[in-house]
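User: Here's a chain of 489 residues. Predict its fold as C-alpha cells.
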Amino acid sequence: MPLVLFTPDPSDTSTTTINGISFSIPALNAFHYALYSNNTISNGSECYLAFDGFRPSMLDNGTWLHATSCYIPYYGAGRRAVASIVFGVGFGLCVLGALMNLKKHGAQHLREDKRFKLVGRRWQWYWMLFVSACAMISLFTGVDVDRYYLQQMPIMLQTFFFTLTLPVALAAVWESIRHWGSWQERQLVDADPYGMPPSARHVRIQFYTPLVFYVLAWLTFFLTIPKPWSPIQKQNTPEQTRDIAIPAATDARAKAGALVAALAWAVIAFSLTHTLRTFHPGKPLLSALPKHLLLNLLFLALCTAYAIASSFSWSLALANQHVSIAYPFAMGYAPLLLILLTANVAGFRTENEDKQLIAQRGARGRAHDAELNLVKKPEWWGRNRAARFASDDERLGNMAGEAGGGRPTARAMEMGDMKVRQRSRSRSVRDPFRDESPERDRGTGTGMQARGSEVARGGNEASASMEVEATSQPAGPAPQQRIRSMLDV
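Assistant: Prediction complete.
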C-alpha cells in the first residue's frame, strides 16, 4: 500500500492533521507509524482506521484514544458470505443425517464376529461427521471474508479447514467402499462358511491395500496441514499478495499434497474394482455396484481435481479474497456436500446389516424346510406357551411344582435313616461299652458311689438274663443279608 507523507500544519510544522485530528509528527515517527493510501495508520504491528467516523488520537507516549482496529467487519455481506451460509446449513443437516445413520447401522443385533468388527461399519459415519464439521467451520468463518476491511483471521481459518476436508473425505469414501466389500464377504460366509475359496492374492490385497491408502492419506495431511498459515492473510496490497500470500498458498507442499491425494483416490478405485471382480465376476459395473458408491467416487475425483488446480493457479484458490466463488463452491464445497447427501440417502434406504442377515437366514431356513417337506408349527403351538407371559414369581412356583416336595422329594434319597428291622442280624447284640471285669475286682464305695454300684449291678444282671434267653432260643438259618446302606458293609 503506498505511503502518504505526513503534511505539517501551517501553524505548527511539528503537527499534522489526519481526518480532522491533530497528531504529533515526532511521536508518530518515534513509534514508526505511517499513513497509507487506504486511510489507515500502521506501524506493522498495530493498525487503526482514520476515515469517516473513525477519528483516533495518539498521545506523546504512544497511547491511542478512540482507536478502531483495521481488522473488523466493515463491509456488508457479499456473495461469498451468502454462499457460505447456504452451504453451511446444508452441511449442518448432513451432520444430523450422519448421526441418525450411525445409530441405525451401528446398532448390534447379532453376536460380533472377529472377522467383521462392529466398528468397521461405523467408520464411514465417523469420517463423514468429521467432514461435515470441518466444512461447517470453514463456511461459517468465511462469512467475514467479504466483510473485513483488511484480511486477517477469517480467510486463514476458511482456507485451513477447507484444506483439511480433502484427506478426511478420502477416508470417508474409502471406508464406505471398503465396508461394502466386507459386507459382500460377510453375506457369502454367512450362507456358506466354506463358500469363499482361499486365495493368496485376495488375502494380500486385503492386507496391503488399506495400509497403502492410509499411508497416502496421512501423507496428504502432513503435506498440506502442518505449515504456517498466517502469510495467507497478507493480501492488503498487491505487493503483499504477490510476495507473501501467493507463494504460501501455491508452494511445493501444496502441490505435492494434492498429487498424493490423487494417488489415494486411485487406490480407492483399485479396491472397488477388485471387490467387483471377487464377489461379482462377469456382472456389469452399474448392476453390481451400488449407485451411491460410484457417485461418491466421482464427486471425490472432482474435489481432488480442484485441489490440484488451486495448488497451481492462484486465481482458482479459495485463499484468494477476490476469487470468483463459482470455482471453490462448485468444485470444492458442492462435491463434498453431494458425497454426504448421497451417503445419507443410501443409509436411510437400506436396513441394518444384522437385520438383513437375520432375514436372509430366515429365508434360507424356509427354503430348506420346503425342500424337506417340513411344516413349521404356528407360534401358539407348544406346551410352554403359557410360561412366556408368567411373572418371575409364577415361574419360580412352577419350577418348585415340577421338582415336587415332602415325601416324594426324599423318595430317591440314598443316605436316609435306616429302620432297626432292616439291619443285619449277624451283628452282635452285646453292648460294646459294658465292663467285662469280675465284680470282685470292682471297688465298692459309700454313699452315692455304693448306690450307683448297686444300680449298675442290677442292670448287669438284667442284661445277662436277656443274653441267656436270647442264646437259649434255637438258631435257625440266617436270612440273606441285604445291603441297604454303607453302614451294613
